[in-house]
Amino acid sequence: MIPPPVRKALQVGAGLAGLVLVFEALRLLGVLPRASVPSTGEIVAAVAGSFSSGTMGEALGVTALAWLLGVLLAAGIGVPVGVMVGLSRWADSATGRAVELLRPIPVVALVPLAVVLFGIEVSMQVFLVALACVWPVLLGSRGGVRTVDPLQVETARTFGLGSVASVFRVVLPASVPAIVTALRIGASLGVVVAVGAQLISGSPGLGTLLVTSQNAGRNDIVWACLLVTGLFGVIVNVLLAAAERGIAGWQELSTEGRR
Prior knowledge:
Order of helices and strands: HHHHHHHHHH
Helix content: over 70%
Shape: globular
Number of strands: 0
Distance between the termini: 21 Å
Number of helices: 10
């Protein structure tokens, strides 16, 4: 009997090996032009070399910082506002149209405005990441509050809990799985937005390193940036999934608990 962690590692390894084989097969068949698409070995060597020189580490550090600050800002705004509109029908009605108006606006369309406001500093990336992440966090928090069984609240009140106490002792604990899942979705989106903002604006980070490498004809570094970006996204998702299990795994409403 293979232990579950080992079985999971083998499955992940098999998936990655299959991806590499497909990639190399496409190169050999000419679907991906070998003149501009380096081999897996060359990409891995470019990753190692760029980290050794410090360029990749610096770019990754800036991207990770912008992502983290943006997600924290989105959580600080989205969770309280989402809980508030979930608790109050009046607040939900008052803010509903504004949310519907602002949420569909593509974040990339706001890059020029963000550059005017913040320049090409990290603060510009933080603003865009927070703006993209705040909507799933807000709506997820609102939905979590709305799905709490009213019978739980009524039961708490029959035991003498007031409205405020019921919110903190019944509604919020029951909403935690939905809120954590919303944070996970928003944080994953934040990685895409951070790199995309760098690609468009030239702000420091993985996106800018990718563009400058492309302009310099260093296709191996371009693919290395893509690989590091993907790995960063995977690490973010794995850490947030672990946090989700640790914080909200006790409820069947948790995403991982249903699997």
